[in-house]
Amino acid sequence: MSSMPRDQWYVAAYRSEIGPELFSRTICGEPILFWRTRSGRVTAVPDRCVHRRFPLSKPPSRLVDDQVVCGYHGFAYGPDGRCVFVPGQSRIPRTARLLPYPLAEQDAFVWVFIGDPARADAARIPRAPYLDSPEFTTVAGMEPLKARFSLLVDNLLDLSHETYLHGGYIGTPEVAATPITTEVDEEAGIVYVSRHMDDAECPPFYAKSTGLAGRIARWQDIEYTPPCLYKLHSRIAPVGSAPNPDGTDPDAFHVEVVYAITPETEHSTHDFWAVARDFALGEEEVSEFLAENNRTVVLQDVEALNVLEQVISAERDGYQELSVNIDTGGLAARRMLQRQVRSGQTAPATA
Amino acid sequence: MNDVRGGRPMLPGGRVYRIHWVLGTDRLRAVCHCAAEREFDDPVGLWQWLLAHPAGHEQPQPNRPSRQSAQAFQLRPEIKEEMS
Q1: Which CATH number covers residue A268?
Q2: Into how many domains does chain A fold?
Q3: Do A96 and A214 reside in the same domain of the chain?
């Protein structure tokens, strides 16, 4: 049974990745071809010619006037996926069509719907408005992970690992030592994990980017909407500072750390990461520092999870792992993902 | 809830489960959307109790949370599977 929920929206790419060239990425085991048409719209269709399945992204396949031409036999398709040319004959078979994926461009991301297109509702796509807001400056990247996506979910839902895996970057002793509060709204599909450290060491990641020295108040509020979008609302402030009753928070630095956790296959994942800040706007030196350091942190996770994937793949079925208090949010996320897997296995709405 | 750091509700929905790590202890306090609450020392048993709602969710008794070990609950197989 697949562990990748279907009938769900996934981040396929950053909007900036898709231009007027052919671009391919595999999402939930489905190779998808993207390009931005001359009208500026992104199109997404299966990256396989209907004839003999040659990848349309692979040269000598090419894009000619908003039509993709298969490099094997010359079949040509428009941006709506309809075949417009079949070699050696004038009749175009009715089934010669690439079925387009439901798609939405939102908050710096290109989202695609994997599953029954009749169930695609773009209003269900969770938001991360900071990523293209002028009130924030954002650095971002994507790292390939050779591990199942649920391992990254486990990793991000329990930040106590920062103390051990990311010491010297974002980890300090207080992260693992501070209790969490977990909330789960099953109807809205949200897992929320809150860790508020009111008197903590300032890790280099935040000391160098904010200029704060000494002890800090450090709040971590995770908001995960399974399966794909993860947001860490990070608040860094002088000790004793708290937001005003009206919600303003002038003494604090806010960093929105966003991950899009997109399964590539059963055993590999696209690890999209972005760091949006509401201070030092446009300051290139701060951007370079945060980009380099966050990428280092992401790669520390990638290295650990790649090892973990090999361990889990080799172990016997039914291995009984241990969960403790720090796993409360991760367990809730697992349950929500399992329910999504089950609901995505039901009969198509179009049947 | 005064002894719970960061314990203020964040999600506004009407069917929200809340789990507070009781400050200074190793215990977790589960609060169901029906207001029943109970303390646990293991998150797996905690979720089994929460998700069994309304079974075993008697009215809360203020200032005297009941304590329950994970083993005291009949585990529903589908929940056990979801947590693995």
Answers
A1: 3.90.380.10
A2: 2
A3: no
Q: Distance of alpha carbon A324 from its chain centroid, rounded?
A: 26
A150 close to B (CB below 8 A) = no
Nearest CA in chain B to A339: B82
Please tell me whether residues A59 and A202 are part of one structural domain. Answer: no
Separation between Cα atoms, residue A328 and residue A230, nearest integer Å: 16
What is the pTM (predicted TM-score) of this model?
Answer: 0.90
Residue A71: which domain range?
A: 8-123
Q: In one letter, which amino acid is A130? A: Y
Q: Are residues A182 and A260 in the same domain?
A: yes
**Minimum-distance CB partner of A185 among B13, B23, B47:** B13
Residue of B6, B22, B43 lying closest to A331 (CB–CB):
B43
Diameter of chain A by CA atoms?
77
| B31 touches A: beta carbon within 8 Å | no
Could you give the angle at which helices A149-157 and A328-343 cross, rounded to 10 degrees?
150
Report if residue A1 sits inside a domain: no
Give Cβ neighbours of residue A201 (< 8 Å, ≥ 6 apart). A172, A173, A174, A215, A216
- Whether residues A100 and A15 share a domain: the answer is yes
Nearest CA in chain A to B7: A181
Our separate counts of H helices and E strands in chain A read 6, 17
Which of A123, A155, A187 is where one domain is finished? Answer: A123
- Is residue A211 in some structural domain? yes
CB contact under 8 A, A179 and B22: yes
pLDDT tens for each residue of chain A, 351 residues long: 799 999 999 999 999 999 999 999 999 999 999 999 999 999 999 999 999 999 999 999 999 999 999 999 999 999 999 999 999 999 999 999 999 999 999 999 999 999 999 999 999 999 999 999 999 999 999 999 999 999 999 999 999 898 899 988 888 888 888 888 999 999 999 999 999 999 999 999 999 999 998 899 999 999 999 999 999 999 999 999 999 999 899 999 999 999 999 999 999 999 999 999 999 999 999 999 999 999 999 999 999 999 999 999 999 888 889 999 999 999 999 999 999 999 988 766 653
B44 at the A interface (CB within 8 A)?
A: yes
Q: Same domain, yes or no, for A327 and A180?
A: yes
Q: How far apart are alpha carbons B53 and A313 in whole angstroms?
A: 35
Which residue among A181, A195, A321 places its CB closest to the CB of B19?
A181
